[in-house]
């Protein structure tokens, strides 16, 4: 939701009420919640299940006075005479999104733009992500908000999906662990996290109506799994249902999803809110267990009539209100927290820097081109070298104070940036911003790369010791990208890479390409040209600072890919079905690839990727030794240990990845699946660390569609421990003598069309 100004309110008539009356009304937090609900009028009941959304700003409900916090997403209704305070919900996944220049602010209320979720996942470091959540959540608390609408946990199914940067990974385990860490960090501040968008909001094209048709197995194993992990491991206060339909029904109106799975099977006790303006039938949303409708005001009359005409039972309203009130009593606003409007942004910026440094991923480094040994003269090419993109657009965007670009951070690090190139690009960027009528902030991100002649390139590289080229991409909420304008390099970009490499290599100089992108792009056709490639992703407002630290060798890169870089777009398993059919205006999106998403597909169907899932280089190297596995069949638990030794010359951290290959006699399985990961501490050259991991029944099992059971089959299981999905260093195996059914779930969410799923057996 990109609207900017929302209001929350106090009930004016409350002051007019007789103090005696107030005294005898039950009060939230003091009296039994059921008695508070019983004291509400029907109108108040429908008010409380609907937000005080955008409407309030333009059209305040009668009797409401408004207090304004600019830029929040919405707030919940207050009933002061029952002691019910409003609560404030704000976006989003890369940091708090409020308007810094709200009228009345003594100083601007800036927030830190943290690295996007994809970068956080690239750190594979759950304690670091928890630290980021803690810092982010402190801004939420100190700027007077109650809930951050984050983390966003959808699966990166296709590189062209507009919101990929907001999501963690193509893998549900990595996604779930990251989401859980983020929730724990956020909620350690006493504010709430909102896990979203539940479920399968994997595309933006027709996002409010698209019907995602997904087999129950793919739903359970891929699309629901990350949410399940995060909800079970971190207890978020709120879950946000998504815009899309799944197997025929809007998620916000789907009782099987919001009640049977979320509450009955997973034990979620919190509140469910809709995404903003989603769904078509408020009554169905109420029945489904979607407690809060956001921004909601426009649905009040509909709900009122539904109760009066017996379409909606008041007891359902009461059930949902109780969950809402249980949420309200936890909030800082209810507890009358005096926020300062002054979080420690300096400390938080350092956390953002640390996360960027661990998330940035080294994709190629021929002949140890990086780190640059001397403080060289740099010929810096590419518009986004001078206009760093810290994050994507839409509700996942943050209003930060300042982000440095690579030209500045390189200079601060002692490099000399070629002055005439710098002045050319800065002038180019300025003129784009001046010419832009509306979106000046993103004018450079979405503009074409300027054309430089081979002579100019030769002249500028001749005056420098090394060249760096940044390729930038942006995308955001509300629209998906196209292969031509996002995934592929434009002709100008390709020529730039080719010419700079040619010219530098003729002069015996090195070239580094920096990718400042939000989602996967094509690399196969040009990746052999430069000497090094650094994947910066959209690493927040400190991203370019982190890049400089890595380039000069103060930090050893330790990021690993949370998503596969395919060789070509047509290799993506959803390439022919995304974003649905009919192509001109999609209604249905068939998930024909089933469970074969990302590396699960590439590995099982022998499709070679450009960069594999889990891949990422370091300046040092690690030796893996002494894998020990201990399997306990009665407890269905595998405990493992492995020793990592830094065998190189730089300090560094390693991400140890544990993949499982399960038997396929009775059910087909992906070639391998990530089942555990551990990031080591920073190891000095020669230093070792033994890391432990544990796999349980669910990690070993598959979801059997027909019986709706999680089954651990009998047979041989292979454990593969390595530095990426394609770089397995040590292996072990164990045998399971019997089949075990470890969980029986409800037979729900059946597809409303046949899904012709891909199979390794065909
Ligand atoms: C987005 C959500 C966001 C909400 C409130 C919606 O358009 O899908 O992710 O939290 O708006 O801004």
How is this structure best described in words?
By secondary structure, the chain is of the alpha/beta class. 29% of the residues lie in helices and 20% in strands. The chain folds into three domains: 296 residues, Alpha-Beta Barrel (TIM Barrel); 215 residues, Rossmann fold (3-Layer(aba) Sandwich), CATH 3.40.50; 123 residues, Immunoglobulin-like (Sandwich). The chain contains 24 helices and 28 strands. The strands form seven sheets. Strands 3-4-5-6-8-11 form a six-stranded mixed sheet. It has a six-stranded mixed sheet with strand order 12-17-16-15-13-14, sandwiched between helices. A four-stranded mixed sheet has the order 10-9-7-18, with no helix packed on it. The protein starts with a strand and ends in an 18-residue tail after the last strand. The N terminus is likely disordered. It binds beta-D-glucopyranose.
Radius of gyration: 26 Å
Looking at the overall shape, the CATH architecture of the largest domain is Alpha-Beta Barrel
Helical/strand content category: alpha/beta
Within CATH, the superfamily of the largest domain carries the name Glycoside hydrolase, family 3, N-terminal domain
Query: Globular, elongated, flat, extended or rod-shaped: what is the shape?
Result: globular
Helix content: 25-40%
Quaternary organization: single chain
Quote the distance from N terminus to C terminus: 43 Å
Biggest sheet: strands side by side, in what order?
A: 3-4-5-6-8-11
DSSP helical segment count = 24
Strand content: 15-25%
The CATH class of the largest domain, by name, is: Alpha Beta
Number of domains: 3
What ranges have pLDDT less than 50 throughout 5 or more consecutive residues?
1-20
CATH topology grouping of the largest domain: TIM Barrel
Arithmetic mean pLDDT: 94
Bound molecules: beta-D-glucopyranose
């Amino acid at each position: 939701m990109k609207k900017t100004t929302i209001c929350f309110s106090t009930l004016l008539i409350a002051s007019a009420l007789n103090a005696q009356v107030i005294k005898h009304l039950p009060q939230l937090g003091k009296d039994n919640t059921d008695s508070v609900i019983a004291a509400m009028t029907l109108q108040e009941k429908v008010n409380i299940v609907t937000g005080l959304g955008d409407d309030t700003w333009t059209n305040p409900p009668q009797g409401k006075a408004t207090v304004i916090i600019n830029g929040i997403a919405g707030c919940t209704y207050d009933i002061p005479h029952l002691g019910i305070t409003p609560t404030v919900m704000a976006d989003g996944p890369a940091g708090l999104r409020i308007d810094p220049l709200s009228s009345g602010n003594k100083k601007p209320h800036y927030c830190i733009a943290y690295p996007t979720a994809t970068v956080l996942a690239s750190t594979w470091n759950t304690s670091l992500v928890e630290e980021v959540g803690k810092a982010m959540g402190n801004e939420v608390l100190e700027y007077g908000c109650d809930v951050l609408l984050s983390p966003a946990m959808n699966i990166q199914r296709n590189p062209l999906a507009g919101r990929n940067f907001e999501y963690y990974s193509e893998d549900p385990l990595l996604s779930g662990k990251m989401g859980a860490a983020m929730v724990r960090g956020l909620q350690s501040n006493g504010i709430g996290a909102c896990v979203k968008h539940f479920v399968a909001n994997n595309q933006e094209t027709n996002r409010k109506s698209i019907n995602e048709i997904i087999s129950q197995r793919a739903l359970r194993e891929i699309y629901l799994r990350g949410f399940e992990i995060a909800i079970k491991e971190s207890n978020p206060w709120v879950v946000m249902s998504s815009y899309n339909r799944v197997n025929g029904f809007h998620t916000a109106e789907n009782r099987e999803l919001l009640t049977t799975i979320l509450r009955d099977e997973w034990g979620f006790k919190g509140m469910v809110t809709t995404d903003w303006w989603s769904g078509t039938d408020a009554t169905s949303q109420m029945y489904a267990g979607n407690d809060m409708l956001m921004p909601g005001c426009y649905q009040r009359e509909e709900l009122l009539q539904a109760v009066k005409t017996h379409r909606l039972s008041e007891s359902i309203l009461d059930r949902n209100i109780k969950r809402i009130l249980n949420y309200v009593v936890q909030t800082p606003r209810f507890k009358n927290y005096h926020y300062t409007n002054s979080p420690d942004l300096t400390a938080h910026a350092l956390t953002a820097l640390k996360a960027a440094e661990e998330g940035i991923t080294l994709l190629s480094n021929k002949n140890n081109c990086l780190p640059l040994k001397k403080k060289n003269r740099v010929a810096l090419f590419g518009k986004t070298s001078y206009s760093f993109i810290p994050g994507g657009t839409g509700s996942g965007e943050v209003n930060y104070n300042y982000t440095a670009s690579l030209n500045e951070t390189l200079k601060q690090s002692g490099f000399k940036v070629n002055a005439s190139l710098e002045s050319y690009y800065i002038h180019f960027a300025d003129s784009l911003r001046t010419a832009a009528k509306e979106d000046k902030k993103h004018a450079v991100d979405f503009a074409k790369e300027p054309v430089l002649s081979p002579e100019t390139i030769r002249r500028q590289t001749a005056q420098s010791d090394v060249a760096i080229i940044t390729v930038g991409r942006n995308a955001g909420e509300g629209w998906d990208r196209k292969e031509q304008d996002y995934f592929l390099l434009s002709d100008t970009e390709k020529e730039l890479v080719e010419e700079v490499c040619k010219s530098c290599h003729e002069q015996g100089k090195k070239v580094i390409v920096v990718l400042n992108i939000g989602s996967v792009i094509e690399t196969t056709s040009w990746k052999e040209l430069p000497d090094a490639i650094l994947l910066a992703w959209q690493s927040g407002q400190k991203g370019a600072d982190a890049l400089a630290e890595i380039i000069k060798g103060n930090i050893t890169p330790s990021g690993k890919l949370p998503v596969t870089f395919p060789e070509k777009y047509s290799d993506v398993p959803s390439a022919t079905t995304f974003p649905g059919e009919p192509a001109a205006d999609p209604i249905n999106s068939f998930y024909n690839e089933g469970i074969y998403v990302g590396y699960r597909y590439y590995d099982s169907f022998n499709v070679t990727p450009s960069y594999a899932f889990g891949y990422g280089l370091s300046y040092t190297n690690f030796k893996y030794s002494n894998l020990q596995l201990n399997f306990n069949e009665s407890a269905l638990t595998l405990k493992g240990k492995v020793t990592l030794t830094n065998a190189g010359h730089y300090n560094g951290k390693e991400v140890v990845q544990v993949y499982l290959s399960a038997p396929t006699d009775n059910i087909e399985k992906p070639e391998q699946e990530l089942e555990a990961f551990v990031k080591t501490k920073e190891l000095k050259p020669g230093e070792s660390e033994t890391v432990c991991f544990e796999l349980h029944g669910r990690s070993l099992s598959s979801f059997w569609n027909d019986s709706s059971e999680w089954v651990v089959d009998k047979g041989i299981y292979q454990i593969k421990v390595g530095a990426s999905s394609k770089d397995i260093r040590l292996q072990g195996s164990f045998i399971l003598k019997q089949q075990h059914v470890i969980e029986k779930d409800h037979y729900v969410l059946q597809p409303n069309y046949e899904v012709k799923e891909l199979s390794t057996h065909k």
